[in-house]
């Protein structure tokens, strides 16, 4: 289905397992090489460690980044650290900070202050009820239960560390999710502007479109790659 000659590297959102991309990867077809980025195992990993884990787990040569949610922060850092390796960047309901910014700084006030305080008190794993109410909204109960069971807390530095100041000027796109209760449309639009995304599109899903409508996500990835100059 995909027209990309470069492998596609998927970056999951914070706490989310690699299997969330299984259906999308299958829909893209056997002719499209895909992989899911590794994450550092240490609870004290820095943002640069997250980015380096992506670079180390990538196939040789260039690759396309498809980043979801907090994976956008990691992807942005990868694109700045290894710009010659990243041939295109598609953000899916992803947080994109300004160069030199962080996940938390990308949030509007007062959300950023509330998020920072909540992490200091409760850590980076939301309560099951919050995951069910927000992150897994729109999914059936079986999939929601699986997400909750497999959710892994991230290092606080993923949210607090600032990205490098260097910018990246490759082919960029942003796929918005219009029924998203985790990342409102106004924030997604702001992130698309920060990414300077030339290609933009919408999906009528919640925050996990790869599980709610995997065929639409695969089709959007293909459209993004086909539109690349």
UniProtKB/TrEMBL annotation:
It comes from the Bacteria. Pfam families: Abhydrolase_6. Residues 9-220 form the AB hydrolase-1 domain. This is Alpha/beta fold hydrolase. The keyword RNA-binding does not apply. GO terms for molecular function: hydrolase activity. Keywords: Hydrolase. Signal peptide: none annotated.
């Amino acid at each position: 289905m995909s027209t990309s000659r470069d492998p596609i590297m998927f970056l999951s959102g914070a706490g989310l397992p690699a299997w969330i991309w299984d259906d999308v990867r299958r829909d893209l077809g056997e002719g499209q090489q895909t992989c899911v980025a590794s994450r550092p195992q240490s609870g004290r990993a820095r943002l640069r460690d997250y980015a380096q884990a992506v670079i180390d787990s990538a196939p040789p040569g260039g690759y396309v980044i498809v980043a979801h949610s907090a994976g956008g922060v990691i992807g942005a850092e990868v694109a700045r650290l290894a710009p010659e390796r990243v041939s295109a960047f598609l953000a899916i309901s992803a947080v994109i900070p300004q160069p030199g910014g962080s996940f938390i700084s990308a949030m509007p006030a007062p959300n950023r202050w509330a998020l920072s305080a909540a992490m200091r008190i409760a850590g980076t794993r939301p309560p099951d009820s919050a995951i069910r109410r927000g992150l897994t909204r729109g999914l059936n109960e079986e999939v929601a239960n699986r997400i909750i069971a497999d959710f892994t807390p991230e290092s606080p530095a993923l949210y607090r560390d600032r990205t490098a100041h260097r910018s990246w000027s490759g082919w960029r796109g942003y796929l918005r999710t219009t029924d998203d209760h985790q990342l409102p449309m106004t924030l997604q639009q702001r992130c698309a502007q920060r990414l300077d995304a030339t290609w933009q599109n919408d999906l009528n899903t919640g925050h996990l479109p790869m599980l709610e409508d995997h065929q639409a996500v695969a089709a959007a990835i293909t459209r993004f790659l086909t539109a690349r100059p």
